[in-house]
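Notebook entry, structure prediction.
Reason for the run: the old model in the group folder had no record of what sequence produced it. Starting over properly, with the input documented here first.
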Amino acid sequence: MAALWRAYAFPVILSFMFSHTRRHSFLFFALLLALVACAAPAVSADEGLTERTEIFLIYKGGAPIGYSHTTLKKLQGGDPKFARWAIESEIYMRISIKNAFRDTLQRSAEIIGGNLRLLEMESALTMGKEKYELTAKSDNSSLFVTSKNSARTHRTETPYPMGAVPVSAAPLLLARLDLENGPESRVIKVVNPGMYRLSISEMAVFIEGRAPVTQDGKVLDAILLRTEMDGLETFIKMDAKGAVYECVQPAVGIKQVRVSARDFQAVKEFESWDVTDSSVLDAGRRLPNSETLAWVDADITWNEKAELTLTSAHQKVRSNSTSSRGPYRASVRVTREPQAPDKAKISDAERRACLAADSKIQSTHEAVRDAAAEAAGKETGALKQAQLIARWIHENIRPDPATWNNDHAAATTLARGAGMNKHVAILFAAMARSRGIPVRVATGVIYTGGLLIAHFWNEAYIDGSWVTVDATAPDPMRPAPVRIKLAQGPNTEIAGDRAAPAIKSLRIDITGSGQR
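New structure, fully documented this time:
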């Protein structure tokens, strides 16, 4: 039952940190296209929608491309006038949606990969008797959506990272619903969780028994919801026959998955409801601006034995479980300022590993060595060189999620001038190692908007201590404290592999925080 829940009700992206099946990415990519391109209720085939709708995204020389559709004239009652996308990998993608929400997705693809960036879109919708116009434009940090009907115009700014989302990140499009005006309201605002919110639309729906129905009486044949009302959070997946899979947070005393369907007549205890194949976790509480925090406390729980390292100069274990079989528990405090130097003797083998060049950490590559020399200038001290290299990377490598699945090699990141935290961690390791500084990679989670999201950063061995360095942060040597370390290694693969068993069952709760 846990596998069923993980598969359908919370399939957010383990692929950010670790390679994972893409099956669910296709399902939710269909939901992305349905929500962003049209955001309207399903209609039957006799109202102009063919049994199968094919949507094509074709790479053409790196330029923004069109959003073309062959059999699509009216999708879910909407008339998409245009939508422009940029794709930054050489891919040919063909996705078939069977009656939009109906049966969710049938797919065929020659190569599935690359990254999707919504530039702008315009669409006309019909909901019930009311007609809507939707327009959206991106400024590379937010999506600005305007919905207009005869009564009013509604404008919304939705932040998302640099205006792009990797195709593999599409499972983040689990809709989060905030009921307006109480449980009897028929207006549900559809957004997506955390910083990865991609679309906002208002759908007029109400619940008739267990079947979600639009105002004009059309039944949505499949829907996946995350609802929050009066502090009660529920995840629901509903299929075409009204089968319901739901889970309510243990915080309110319910630890069950209720499954009511023809093939699953059972109610089973779900001991770890939030055991998800995911690198995106609910933080357990909302925090003020992380830039103003001095410290946070967190409880960490996982079920499978893993080679974790929960200590650093900024993170100390306050208590941990002595269980030999799991579940395993630890409480940590993470601070902005180092709590104490992370003193450690480094063995010859570890030093060699943390100075070695490989296919990604290309510390011997001419371009990498030249960039490191430019960043360090005439400085000879290891600490100052590390600071200068991190600052140089922060100023010269722009963050762009559209690069997430692209080549992570340091020289490629330099040439592209863009990358995400994994690219940056690899690049810093390569540049610092080229200057003779031993560097390892740390992996864990960082906090943003109520979520804990997978992240890579570095630790440099300087003057007998491991020093935390995150070149994605404005102050690389003093990053914000909501950064919980889980594992470390000489490269991203080893660090990721060490954390992987714990990630499968990871729960992290932020239990306290303090301001500067």
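Summary: The first helix runs from residue 2 to 8.
The old model has been moved to the deprecated folder.
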